[in-house]
Amino acid sequence: VRPLPHNESLPIPVATKTYTQQPATDLEDFEPQPGPSTSTYDYEEYPADLVYRQPHLFTQPELNDLVRDLELPKSKSQLLGSRLQQ
To answer: Which parts of this chain are annotated as the region Disordered (predicted)?
Structure first.
């Protein structure tokens, strides 16, 4: 990939003047839905109303796997670990 010169057929893009910000979604906004609502993943069923209510706490082996899968350097893996403890 290399830079291309701009010309009449390839003009310089112009950013829009106004932007809209999407409202932040908070965990309290998710309310349990009445009825047997479930979602399936790999043949396991999880109640959908609990998915957004409970934080997932990582075990050390899970954190090690995540760091390995993301190919994080040591400094970034330490930062991730400290942020997940908060």
So the answer is: 1-43
Distance CA 81, CA 66 (A): 10
pTM of the model: 0.37
**pLDDT of residue 9 exceeding 70:** yes
SS3 47: strand
User: Does residue 5 register a pLDDT over 80?
Assistant: yes
pLDDT band at 13 (very low <50, low <70, confident <90, very high): confident
**Rounded alpha-carbon distances, angstroms, from residue 41 to 7, 12, 35, 45, 61:** 50, 45, 19, 7, 21
Compute the half-sphere exposure of residue 37: CA atoms within 13 Å on the CB side of its CA: 9
d(CA 13, CA 6): 10
